[in-house]
Amino acid sequence: MLVLKDVHARYGAITALRGISIEVQEGELVALLGVNGAGKSTTLATIAGVLRPWQGEIQFQGKSILGKTPEQIARLGIALVPEGREIFPSLTVEENLRLGAFIRKDRTEYRRNLDEVFGLFPVLKERLQQPGGTLSGGEQQQLAIARALMSTPRLLMLDEPSLGLAPALVDQIFDLIVRLHQRGVTILLVEQNADRSLEIVDRAYVLNTGLIESQGTPDQLRTHTDIEGIYMGDKHRANT
Ligand SMILES: Nc1ncnc2c1ncn2[C@@H]1O[C@H](COP(=O)(O)OP(=O)(O)O)[C@@H](O)[C@H]1O
Ligand SMILES: [Mg+2]
Asked: Which of 42, 93, 156, 222 could form a disulfide with 16, with the two C-beta atoms 3.0–4.6 Å apart?
């Protein structure tokens, strides 16, 4: 469904991706793991069309999406929930959700999506008229994911959804990701929490300084990779 081939990206003089190749099949839950600065968010930004790779190829459903605008890519069915759950704090929960559905103009479909989202996030239904900014951190993260789901994406990309959440809320978010996966949503999950991620994903890639250092199923990675290194940022590895 999604294929990245030898993608290079940089911010001015700073090279963030040095040739990464990733595949996500329809229905898969795949994680991108790695320490801070490894290039995880940059990878999502290149897929979403926010950052243009200077080399390499990105295909979605068999077609190149290089050079498309973020809006065109969103219309193809790729939704990104960015790091830091960027909801609109002064808009109500309902208004936030309606913005997520901007691609869907049909009212019936909007209602159906809304009902589905309420099934997954009952708390949002109770708070529809409340400004998004008055929700707790965990609720805001739910709202950010719910907003992305309002567009019925084919591919959902989550950037560190558990970051900064209390342990109980982290559990809720991971449970939610499992439920979405069970419903058949294709998910590319960026996480620093490698242990938790490996419990739920089909496959994972480990990024380090803009390169894929290892990849495989959770079992393969646990056997062959220094999982702790993903947390420690193992400074002994070359940082060039
Ligand atoms: N807007 C930016 N301008 C300059 N450098 C950036 C920018 N965003 C990220 N970087 C750099 O690119 C590299 C990869 O960053 P990022 O993709 O955010 O890593 P991760 O999400 O894995 O923590 C880092 O060295 C980071 O400092
Ligand atoms: Mg990041």
From this structure: 42
Return the best residue to mutate from 8, 10, 14 for the ligand 1 pocket (most ligand atoms within 8 A of CB): 14
The last residue of a domain, from among 108, 136, 152: 152
* Residue 62, both tokens: 């068999």
Q: Which residue from 4, 33, 42 has its CB within 8 A of the most atoms of ligand 1, so it is best to mutate? A: 42
CA of 206 to the centre of ligand 2 (A): 13
Q: How confident is the model at residue 240 (pLDDT cuts 50, 70, 90)?
A: very low
Q: Which two tokens stand for residue 49?
A: 């069309």
Query: Quick one: tokens of 116?
Result: 């589905």
Q: State pTM to two decimals.
A: 0.91
The pLDDT tens digits of the residues spanning 99-123 come to: 887 666 678 888 888 888 888 889 9
Q: Are residues 28 and 132 in the same domain?
A: no
